[in-house]
Each structure stands twice: as structure tokens, then as C-alpha cells.
Design a protein that fits this description.
Structural class: alpha+beta
Radius of gyration: 31 Å
Strand content: 15-25%
CATH architecture of the largest domain: 2-Layer Sandwich
CATH topology of the largest domain: BirA Bifunctional Protein, domain 2
Helix content: 40-55%
Shape: globular
Order of helices and strands: EHEHEHEEHHHHHEHEEHHHEEEHHHH
CATH class of the largest domain: Alpha Beta
Largest sheet: 5 strands, antiparallel
Protein name: Relaxase/mobilization nuclease domain-containing protein
Pfam family, one: Relaxase
Number of domains: 3
Number of strands: 11
InterPro entries: Endonuclease_MobA/VirD2
Organism: Mucilaginibacter ximonensis
Distance between the termini: 93 Å
Oligomer: single chain
Number of helices: 16
Length: about 400
């Protein structure tokens, strides 16, 4: 099981996102836990009111929480089991007795549920959210995997199965709703899983999934207003379909949102530098061209993405490590991993290993040679040999 937690002050967007999925027939509301009425008797406004009542008791800006619990594709979980898992998880992360809405979604290749709730208690106090994902949620996840017999998140085979696939552009080119749904699935995965520290680094990952985050031209109004849209890319890397504003997605991956992630990711990814550097160094031992280097790195789960000028000159390189889920601009790893250094290192000829048979023949020739030393013999060695002969004659 994998748990992903988002929090904000826009519970209306969280609720709208899930209810919209229900309206499209690709989700179902399974439960309204700790509500005064049963789920069947609640309409949209009553669902919202149940959470707004608590949110109004506090002036805190962060008062809404959206959680997704993701399971292995092989797991077939009944509605009752999903409700039991959600209840256990909420209690273990400190949300016992908090009202929440539980939705099962059917729009992905693996079973998953979404939970909409608030971190404001009935007495107006707030449940602390700092490190909740890395501490309480991790403890809860591991306990629940054992208690319910779920596939463990550490299972590498499961991680590979659940890895989000690149957007199928042809299937998504039927209007804004389909485009938004396709991009949203990738964003939810990439923004929570990968550690990047700039927009170009984020785009290095997104382009692996046929998506790009675009600020527009520097002279454009969108750029001046710090706007951001997400678009799909075709096989040639051209933007296609309807661009979607960052603020239209339920997690709102705007520039402001991303800038906060940059700062947090910068420190979190430092320990992963060595893995990429070592992999590049090893690949260069057997690579004699940039193309072969890229091919070798890809086999080890690293995409080396080249940045080129209009006339084809390579001026930058970004490494996307899909195993460690980190992204680094080449120069951030050190001088030896920048685009310029990599081109120079690829241009160096590999040392030719001596042929063992030729080596034996050369050695035999030297040993059997009875002639006087050749003129190629160093002058100093010739002199030493002559001196020895004179001493013997005396």
C-alpha cells in the first residue's frame, strides 16, 4: 500500500474533484464516516457542511486534507475491506473520530481510494500535519499491510507495476476533460514521488510521460503574472491538445506550490547524488559516444536528457533517476558530469587491451634474439654493457 497526503485550505476543490469523478461514473462514495446522517441521506452541500463546521472553528490557513491509499494491481478489495482499511489508517495517523468522506476510484490501473477530511478538531484545536507523511503515515502503512495481508510497498515488483505510464496522447485528445484526467494522473504521481529543485528539472521528468509544464514566452502576460499551464507532448516533443491551467487541478501545482517543493526537495535528494555519479562513471568505462552512454544509463534506470540549441549544439544535460526518484542538472553533480565534461569524456579513446597471443610472441622474440643490441636501445644501457665487458677481459 502507498499513501499520499495533500493538504490545503480548499476543501471545496477536494470535494468537487471526487464528486465530479462520481458524476462521470469512474468513482463511488463508499462512506461518510462520523457524520450525523447515513451516506444515502447526504447531498453535496451536506457533505461539505459536515467538514466546514469544524473548519470554521479555527483560523488556521491549512485546514483541509486529501489522502489517497493505493494498492497493488493484483489485489481485489471489497468495499467493506476498503472501509476497514481507511478507518484503521485514519485512527493510526491521529484522525480518530474526525469526519471524512471515502471514495473509491476506478480510473487507474491499480485499486485506490481517496479520503477527504479536515485536521480541525471539535474543540477548535488542529491535528499537527508536520512530517505526518514520513512518520505517522509510514508507521500506519506498515502495520496495515501486515494486519490486512496487503502487498508491501517495498516490493520492487509492485513498484514497477504501479509506476505511472506515459500519457497516451491519441486517447487523451478528445477534449479538456480527457486531457485533464490524463495529465492529473501523472502529476499526482510525479509531484509526490520525485525530488526535483527547479521547473526545468520537473519538466525533465514530465517529458518522460509526454507532458510539459509551460510558463509561456517571457514577453507573455502569463509569464509576467507567474502563470503556469500543463500540456501534452506528441512523439516529436510538440505541445498538442488543450493546455490546462495549474489552478484547475485539485492539487493546484502552481509556481507557488512548486517553489515550496523545490526547497524541501533540495535537501532530501542530496544523499542520492552518489548513485547517479557512480552509474555514470561505470557507464563511461564501456561507452565511447554520448548515444551509447544514454543507452547504457537507461538500462540502469536513469534517463540522461540532453538540452540542445536550435542548431543542435548540446549545452546542458539533466539526469532523471527513476530508481531513486531524483532529478539533477549535470553541473549540480559536479564539473565532471556537466554537458561539456561528458562530451569531453566520451571523446577520450578507450585503452586498448593487449592481445595475449601477440604479447607472448613478442616476449619469445626478445628472449631468442642473439644479435647485438639494436640502435633502438637507450644510449645509457649500451654504455653500461660495454663497461662490463672490459672489466671481464682484464
Amino acid at each position: 500500500m502507498v499513501a499520499v497526503i495533500h493538504h490545503s485550505n480548499r476543501i471545496d476543490k477536494m470535494l468537487n474533484y471526487n464528486e465530479h469523478k462520481v458524476g462521470e461514473g469512474i468513482a463511488k462514495c463508499l462512506e461518510a464516516a462520523h457524520y450525523p446522517k447515513d451516506l444515502a441521506g447526504l447531498n453535496f452541500y451536506q457533505k461539505m457542511a459536515g467538514l466546514d463546521k469544524l473548519r470554521s472553528l479555527s483560523t488556521r490557513k491549512i485546514n483541509s486534507v486529501h489522502i489517497s491509499l493505493n494498492f497493488d494491481p493484483s489485489e481485489k478489495l471489497s468495499a467493506e475491506k476498503l472501509k476497514a482499511i481507511a478507518a484503521d489508517y485514519m485512527e493510526k495517523i491521529g484522525f480518530k473520530d474526525q469526519p471524512y468522506l471515502l471514495y473509491e476510484h476506478y480510473d487507474s490501473g491499480h485499486p485506490h481510494v481517496h479520503i477527504v477530511t479536515t485536521n480541525i478538531r471539535a474543540d477548535g484545536s488542529a491535528i499537527e500535519l508536520h512530517n505526518i507523511g514520513s512518520v505517522q503515515s509510514e508507521i500506519a502503512r506498515k502495520a496495515i499491510e501486515i494486519a490486512f495481508g496487503l502487498v508491501k510497498a517495498q516490493d520492487s515488483e509492485r513498484q514497477e507495476k504501479q509506476r505511472v505510464k506515459p500519457v497516451n496522447v491519441q486517447q487523451a485528445l478528445y477534449g479538456k476533460t480527457e486531457t485533464k484526467r490524463a495529465i492529473s494522473g501523472v502529476l499526482n504521481y510525479v509531484l509526490s514521488a520525485y525530488k526535483f529543485a527547479s521547473l526545468p528539472e520537473l519538466n525533465a521528468v514530465l517529458k518522460c510521460y509526454n507532458i510539459v509544464a509551460d510558463r509561456g514566452d517571457k514577453e507573455s502576460r502569463m509569464y509576467r503574472n507567474n502563470g503556469l499551464v500543463y500540456s501534452m507532448l506528441d512523439k516529436q516533443g510538440n505541445k498538442v491538445g488543450v493546455p490546462i491551467k495549474a489552478s484547475d487541478f485539485h492539487i493546484q501545482p502552481t509556481l507557488k506550490f512548486l517553489s515550496k517543493k523545490y526547497a524541501a526537495n533540495e535537501a532530501a535528494r542530496l544523499s542520492k547524488k552518489t548513485h547517479i555519479k557512480n552509474t555514470v562513471d561505470l557507464a563511461l568505462l564501456k561507452s565511447i559516444s554520448i548515444d551509447k552512454l544514454i543507452e547504457s544509463l537507461k538500462k540502469d534506470g536513469i534517463d540522461a536528457i540532453l538540452r540542445k540549441s536550435l542548431d543542435g549544439i548540446i549545452y546542458g544535460i539533466t539526469y532523471v533517476d527513476h530508481k531513486e526518484k531524483v532529478v539533477f542538472n549535470g553541473s549540480d553533480l559536479g564539473k565532471n558530469y556537466s554537458a561539456k565534461a561528458i562530451q569531453e569524456r566520451c571523446a577520450l579513446p578507450l585503452l586498448k587491451q593487449p592481445n595475449l597471443l601477440e604479447l607472448k610472441l613478442d616476449l619469445a622474440t626478445i628472449l631468442l634474439d642473439t644479435q647485438e643490441p639494436s640502435e633502438a636501445l637507450p644510449f645509457e644501457l649500451k654504455q653500461q654493457k660495454k663497461k662490463k665487458r672490459k672489466r671481464l677481459q682484464q
